[in-house]
């Protein structure tokens, strides 16, 4: 079980770039992975930009069914929260970091 990190929004704001903050904490409209994809190192592991929880690894082929790029594979399902969202008129699954409940913008 992942222990949640709770911080006031101002703290997250300090940790993140304005762009990251908008996407990760304010449900910015940008789709995941469209703006910032940075591998932290050559291991192919992507970390949450806010709390550094490892979230994905680059995988050759992975059919997640969540709308995420098929070449990313969760490190562990427990590290992610999958939330049904039908607020945009179509059912889609939102993926959140399990530790800080940010929209993960890996770096
Ligand atoms: Zn996080």
Question: What do you see in this structure?
Answer:
With 107 residues, the protein is of the alpha+beta class. It has one domain (9-97): Metal Binding Protein, Guanine Nucleotide Exchange Factor, Chain A. 14% of the residues lie in helices and 21% in strands. The protein is built from two helices and five strands. The protein has helices spanning 9-15, 18-25; strands spanning 45-47, 54-58, 72-74, 80-85, 92-97. Strand 1 and strand 2 (54-58) form a beta hairpin. It binds zinc ion. Zinc ion (ZN) is lined by residues 48, 50-51, 53, 97, 99-100, 102.
Features:
alpha+beta; two-stranded antiparallel sheet; 3-stranded antiparallel β-sheet; globular; binds zinc ion; about 110 residues; 5 strands; Metal Binding Protein, Guanine Nucleotide Exchange Factor, Chain A
Give a short account of the largest sheet: 3 strands, antiparallel
The overall number of domains is 1
Amount of beta strand: 15-25%
CATH evolutionary superfamily: Peptide methionine sulfoxide reductase
Strand order of the biggest β-sheet: 1-2-3
CATH first level: which class?
A: Mainly Beta
Rg over alpha carbons: 13 Å
Instruction: Report the helical percentage.
Output: 10-25%
Distance between the termini: 23 Å
């Amino acid at each position: 079980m992942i222990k949640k990190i709770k911080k006031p929004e101002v703290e997250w704001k300090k940790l993140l770039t304005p762009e990251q903050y908008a996407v990760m904490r304010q449900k910015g409209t940008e789709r995941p992975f469209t703006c910032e994809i940075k591998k932290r190192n050559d291991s192919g592991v992507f970390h949450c930009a806010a709390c550094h929880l490892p979230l994905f690894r680059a995988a050759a082929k992975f059919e997640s069914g969540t709308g995420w790029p098929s070449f990313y594979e969760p490190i562990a399902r427990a590290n992610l929260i999958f939330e049904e969202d039908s607020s945009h008129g179509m059912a889609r699954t939102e993926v959140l970091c399990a530790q800080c409940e940010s929209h993960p913008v890996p770096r």
